[in-house]
Predict the structure.
Amino acid sequence: MKKLFVVLMAVVILTPVICLAGSSEKFEQIGEPFLIIVPADYHHDTYMESFGKKYSSEFPNYRSSGVTADKFSQVTTKLLPNQKLAVTVYLVKSWTISRQEIITFLKANNAFLVGAQGLALTFEQKRDQLPIGCITSFDQKEHLWRDIEGHTMELKLFKFGPPNEYHPAFDSWLGPSDALNIGDIFFLCFRDGFTAVEKKQNEIAVEKKQNEIKDLEEKLAKAKEELERLSGK
């Protein structure tokens, strides 16, 4: 399995970052925001440990890469039981982007920096809405675990697509926090669920009603024309 992971990592490393021609933007939103809800029995200090046990078969390298609960105990913002979060996925489109630029972007968008717990919870509840590639939930460097050489390390989730004899559907890696040029890099933006997803859902509902009213008005207009035509005979 370790040899398989090395091969998979090599494939990801050699995969170029998608970059839209003629675009100067460094980030691209992927799809619409979606809602996740923190479970009522959520416990910050034990969540990553229980997550690793629950999904050990789906993340072959979760343990072997050095993931332990204590390495993720420090986060900027701890998730709270029953909290609603709107999650937006962004694609990094620039080879020259720095990690701090992403943090600045998240802060400017009033995002919660929830670290690995947010990434794991998103996998649990909305894995089907995650793109194929390397996905990260960023946090401030001072809250990240450091290895023996002093490098800050961050949990990265890999989605490979349907599993086959060569690779699993998902895997994880505890790697350097500054490693941004290793393939298709996506990051998650967590906002207040009430001010993002539900607002968008309301906008969609209003637009749907407006279209329904427009269709009815058109039908009434046609019926009126037909009635006038028949009355004139």
Helices lie at 2-14, 44-54, 99-108, 115-126, 197-231. The CA atoms of residues 16 and 179 lie 14 Å apart. The longest strand covers residues 27-37. The longest helix spans residues 197-231.
